[in-house]
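Narrative of activities, Objective 1.

The group set out to show that a structural description can be obtained from nothing but a protein's sequence at a throughput compatible with the screening campaign. Below is one input-output pair from the validation batch, recorded exactly as produced.
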Amino acid sequence: MGKSTIVLLTIFLASVPSEAQVINEIHIFIDGDAQIVLVDSLGRRCGYDPISHTDYEEIPRASYGDEGVDSEDSSVPDLYSRGLGLQKATTGTYTLKIIGTKQGTYDVTISMGRGLGNGDSFSFNDSTFRGSVALFDIFYSTDTTVQLKAIRLH
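Output recorded for this entry:
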């Protein structure tokens, strides 16, 4: 009987990410005594205005809602935050309104992604009261050479 030889050949192919793999997105999470409304460069809105009791769902591929877990132990509070997600975000300036629901505080995190593993995150916190509005500009670009920014206006 002759000897059998098994040859394993491994080929690594460089691949270019498809459009489905490249995720351009903005995610905003807020905890505390406030709600958020995101306004895109065309004036379309997504979020909830607690003063006018209005839900906005005008931005395509954007959604806003509560996320969290109910505690089974009554001595442990439920863990909830509100989140806004925008898939296939386009280049432009977005305005974020943080609207106070009562006297208290809020923590907000703005995360932006573009492409595979390319993005940035910004966190802010402050005190708030019913009807107060804090404004932020979010500068988003699908161009990876342009810096992503989120700045508080007031």
